[in-house]
């Protein structure tokens, strides 16, 4: 997976052949995918995509799963029209590509989406989940944004905790034991910082034998050995949201 010429081992994994049950719409300057539950609700979840962008079928599958569990789910294009990373791109250009897509600079877009959810969807309790690049974005928001109730960061690169680790909201961190991009020492360090500084509920969970992207990029039907962990990760995510929204 990862070697010197590939700074990010994010391969697309199993690209789901999935069309999505929701719809695409425009929210001010942002395109977004929205899926709503059958019954009306005042609970919503913002889904933050990985480097492969807001149109990846796998991420829409996760948004639809949230809607099936009773949440309004919205997956905005946080790259705001810039191209998502493609598996065919040259990894040597990844760092440059990332410079214009900073997971810590999404506040303006989040404000627009929060306003839409409150005013157009009647949402009162709003949480956020994110994968990989989006997992890092969740960490940023949990440290900074007062308007969200809770967050789930799935294998988010740990980079916003250098100078502060007092989370504002209950946050669940999902990590993979064999993630070549996020060494377990970093996870241990994160846990230590949270233990020292954190005043709200949090949980850090490492899933044995799993690799980066396992919750949304692996198909359980063709990875039987991983199936229990994929399902457990998804269930844990939903349970956390149910508890805090």
TrEMBL record:
Protein name: Carboxymethylenebutenolidase homolog
Compartmental location: Cytoplasm, Cytosol
Keywords: Cytoplasm
InterPro entries xrefs: AB_hydrolase_fold (IPR029058), CMBL (IPR042946), Dienelactn_hydro (IPR002925)
Domain of life: Eukaryota
Span of domain Dienelactone hydrolase: 30-245
Record carries keyword Amino-acid biosynthesis: no
Single GO cellular component term: cytosol
Entry annotated with the keyword Cytoplasm: yes
Organism: Cathartes aura
Family of this protein: Belongs to the dienelactone hydrolase family.
Gene3D superfamilies: alpha/beta hydrolase
UniProt cross-references to PANTHER family, sorted A to Z: CARBOXYMETHYLENEBUTENOLIDASE HOMOLOG
Gene Ontology MF, one: hydrolase activity
């Amino acid at each position: 997976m990862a070697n010197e010429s590939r700074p990010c081992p994010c391969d697309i994994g199993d690209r789901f052949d999935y069309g999505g049950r929701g719809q695409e719409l425009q929210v001010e300057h942002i395109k977004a995918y929205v899926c709503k539950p059958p019954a009306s609700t005042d609970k919503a979840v913002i889904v933050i995509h990985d480097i492969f962008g807001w149109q990846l079928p796998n991420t829409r599958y996760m948004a639809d799963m949230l809607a099936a569990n009773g949440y309004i789910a919205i997956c905005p294009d946080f790259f705001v029209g810039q191209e998502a990373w493609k598996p065919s791109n040259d990894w040597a250009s990844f760092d440059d590509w990332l410079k214009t897509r900073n997971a810590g600079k999404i506040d303006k877009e989040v404000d627009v989406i929060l306003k839409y959810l409150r005013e157009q969807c009647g949402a009162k309790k709003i949480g956020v989940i994110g994968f990989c690049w989006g997992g890092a974005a969740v960490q940023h928001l949990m440290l900074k944004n007062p308007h969200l109730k809770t967050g789930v960061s799935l294998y988010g690169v740990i980079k916003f905790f250098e100078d502060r680790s007092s989370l504002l909201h209950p946050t669940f961190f999902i990590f993979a034991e064999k993630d070549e991009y996020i060494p377990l020492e970093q996870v241990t360090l994160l846990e230590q910082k949270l233990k020292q500084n954190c005043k709200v509920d949090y949980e850090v969970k490492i899933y044995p034998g799993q690799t980066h992207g396992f919750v949304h990029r692996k198909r359980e039907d063709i990875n039987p050995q991983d199936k229990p962990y994929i399902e457990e990760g998804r269930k844990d995510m939903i349970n956390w949201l149910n508890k805090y929204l």
